[in-house]
Amino acid sequence: RYAILSHRWAVEVCYEELTGLPRMEARMRDQVRQRDGYRKIINSCKQAMKDGYEWLWIDTCCIDKRSSAELSEAINSMYRWYQNAQVCYAYLNDVDELDFPTKRDHSKFDKSNGWPEWFMRGWTLQELIAPKQVQFFNRDWVPIRNKRHLAPVLKEITGIPCKVLRDGLAAKHLSIAQIMSWAATRKTTRVEDRAYSLMGLFGINMPMLYGEGKKAFQRLQLEIIRASSDHSIFAW
């Protein structure tokens, strides 16, 4: 039994830094502890303990990215890890209200189409769909409702049917083009992650080749074609 975190990356603390904290000189250790990413780790751990979980998984500090083999295994396993978690904590760092924003607000979220930025990122698509439970938190770690209760609002934001939000991908027959459409306006920092972040949604595994650029999406399309007879893939 474990909880898992979903969040918008900022100035984070990596695996090497977190495991090396006890050996750091005091000045460097204090700098790491002042980062938003470090406070995010501490607050999500506190929430997991409060909810009775002994384990919490966070992508920023639980993957040793110095190892290409470990990174590749993690990315290929990511959907399953989110799916098997008892709860996913979705941290919305740009929401300071005590309730989930249910109406588009371009003045507040001007860079993300009027909604919290979490909904515009590539990786958070599978992190919304895969877990059975998703609990949203605002900037101050106040809970602001969950995926099941917010399904109609989340459908408006993401285009994902309520049945999929409540019961997962297996709950509804979906075309490849429909799933692809949910990712169309989302952004990733690395070009390759536009493809890698979709692998779990299509049940695809393939090696990571950072540096290949847009070829990653072409490889994803080829793998989907090999595994499916759904011709709607050619719309993309």
Please provide the ordered H/E string of secondary-structure elements.
EHHHEHHEHEEHHHHHH
Q: Give the termini distance in whole angstroms.
A: 38 Å
Low-confidence stretches: none
Strand content: 5-15%
Neighbour order of strands in the largest sheet: 2-1-3-4-5
Assign the structural class, choosing from mainly alpha, mainly beta, alpha/beta, alpha+beta, or little secondary structure.
alpha/beta
Characterize the largest beta sheet: strand count, sense, and whether it forms a barrel: 5 strands, mixed
Mean pLDDT, as a whole number?
96
Which percent range fits the helix content? 40-55%
What's the Cα radius of gyration? 18 Å
The count of DSSP E runs of length 2 or more, i.e. the number of strands, is 5
Enumerate how many helices there are, as a single number.
Answer: 12
Overall geometry comes to: globular
Give a written overview of the molecule:
The protein is of the alpha/beta class and 236 residues long. Helix content is 42%, strand content 9%. The protein contains twelve helices and five strands. It has helices at 15-20, 26-33, 36-50, 59-62, 68-84, 124-129, 151-158, 162-167, 176-183, 193-196, 199-202, 215-227; strands spanning 2-7, 55-57, 87-91, 134-137, 143-146. The chain has a five-stranded mixed sheet, with helices on both faces. β3, α6 (124-129) and β4 (134-137) form a beta-alpha-beta unit. The longest helix is centred in the N-terminal third of the chain and has 17 residues, at 68-84.
